[in-house]
Design goal:
- The chain contains eight helices and seven strands.
- With 240 residues, the protein is of the alpha+beta class.
- The strands form three sheets. It has a three-stranded antiparallel beta sheet with strand order 3-4-5. It has a two-stranded antiparallel ribbon with strand order 1-2. A two-stranded antiparallel ribbon has the order 6-7.
- Strand 4 and strand 5 form a beta hairpin.
- Helix 6 crosses helix 7 and helix 7 crosses helix 8.
- The termini are far apart.
Length: 240
């Protein structure tokens, strides 16, 4: 029986980007007689895809040592709202490059390591020799690192924990509006009493931000003020 698998809702965006990541080896090294791609070539192809799927990639490098030899270790981390995965790639700093000073050697190895990490993450073909390589023979991650990256599972997006404001705290709450600190009541008045468009826009944008502490305050403050206004209206009606 043929077995089929389907992408989960969590990693579907990542798979779509991975399938679209085709970066040609369109640069030519006449001295070495080989074609290559640069890190910028990969990033120029990747950035529009990340924007389309509302995702981002974080690239980090660190120096690690194996048998007392320095290596540039690059980590490429993919993130979106529902999925995270990482890949690692290492390149040894080649001391044999006599015409390059130490920062250039490290920078060259770091650039090649970043390309290797991105290639591992998005399944870009390895191609041939690369001018950013310090030796022409990059050292790939050890098996445990590669296995860990491939077995990464979707991580649930943590939900921010916001406080529950007391009535007294809401009455005293300060916000920044128009570059100045002011009581939230002043912005509420502008937005809902004076019908100020700028205040209404500010209020709506912050209200609709689920990850914002200010949005949390606003979402509690609106119903609180409506309740207070209803109480005042009832008291005024009863006093007649």
């Amino acid at each position: 029986m043929e077995k089929t698998t389907q992408a989960t809702s969590g990693d579907r965006n990542f798979i779509a980007i991975q399938q679209a990541m085709s970066v040609p080896l369109d640069k030519n090294n006449e001295f070495g007689h080989f074609n290559y791609r640069t890190l910028d070539d990969i990033l120029l192809r990747l950035k529009p895809l990340l924007n389309k799927h509302q995702a981002y990639v974080k690239l980090d490098t660190a120096v690690v040592f194996h048998n007392s030899l320095p290596y540039q270790q690059a980590t490429a981390e993919y993130h979106d709202d529902n999925f995270e995965i990482a890949a690692v790639y290492e390149v040894r700093e080649d001391e044999a490059k006599k015409k390059m000073d130490a920062p250039q050697v490290s920078g060259s190895a770091a650039s090649y390591a970043k390309k290797g990490a991105l290639a591992n993450l998005f399944l870009i073909d390895d191609g041939s020799s690369d001018p950013d390589s310090t030796s022409g023979k990059p050292v790939k991650p050890t098996q445990p690192r590669t296995k860990q990256a491939k077995n990464a599972k979707p991580l649930p997006k943590p939900k921010p924990k916001f406080k529950k404001y007391t009535p007294a705290e809401m009455l005293k709450a300060q916000v920044t509006y128009g570059g100045k600190k002011t009581n939230i009541w002043n912005v509420y008045t502008k937005a809902f009493k004076e019908k100020d468009v700028a205040a209404q826009t500010w209020w709506k944008e912050n209200h609709n931000n689920p990850d914002s502490a200010l949005g949390n305050l606003i979402r509690q403050y609106g119903p609180f003020m409506k309740e207070k206004e209803a109480e005042k209206a009832k008291e005024a009606q009863q006093s007649k």
